[in-house]
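call fold(seq) -> tokens
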Amino acid sequence: MLITSLMSLAIATVATWVSINTKEEVFQASMALIALLSTLLTLFFAPLLLKVLIVAFAWLLEKTRYLSVRKIS
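ret:
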């Protein structure tokens, strides 16, 4: 179960990267949809440990952005 969750997360990461770096609008929208679907499937089927790690990583990333913006301002 963990391996399939990590594979789905990898697909979501690659689709997000392609969506950001492509210039074609239709391809960009389809990659964004694939990334969203893969992320939702990962969060639904992932073990609790992986869910906690994903949420903690997102929280820490947002926290560091908030702190860096406060230092600049």
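Helices lie at 2-21, 25-45, 48-72.
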